[in-house]
Amino acid sequence: MAVRPVLRYPEPVLKTLALPLEPGPHAEAIAADLVDTMRASPACVGIAAPQIGESVRAFCADVTGHRRARSQHGLIVMINPVIEASEGAEVIREGCMSLPDFTGNVRRAAAVVVRGLTPEGETIRIESDAFEARALQHEIDHLDGLLFLDRVSSLTSDVFTRKRYDTPPSR
Hints:
Helix content is about 20%, strand content about 30%. With about 170 residues, the protein is of the alpha+beta class. The protein starts with about 25 loop residues before the first helix and ends in a 10-residue tail after the last strand.
């Protein structure tokens, strides 16, 4: 449908608990905008509705081909997701389009089972691990008004300024 601007912190919607979303045309339109926005954003593997200004429980993710992904379910578009089970824990660096200048060491479950609905209303259940599990948890956090900064142990030792190269680094 449309590529939408990605909101950046401190936009209030990013720290607000998102509302449940009814399946149907409105959910399908938001889902289409999420997918279009994700695909238009370099290196993006997921985006949640609050990041495009919609305070509803919807996200999309696709880690296909990512070097850290083991489970790869392709394009996942889900509304009203719930984490049914989680297992293990690992601390890995992650970033966010709503906090583009920073990355942080975040502890998350190593494997999750997530249940939700498609925008059309069909129940879906995803069992994922490694990077895909991390991406799903990150997007669900957005629906709960959480950013990765809320999950770091220390703002002084676990948050880093993102390195950006406008030109290739010199040798």
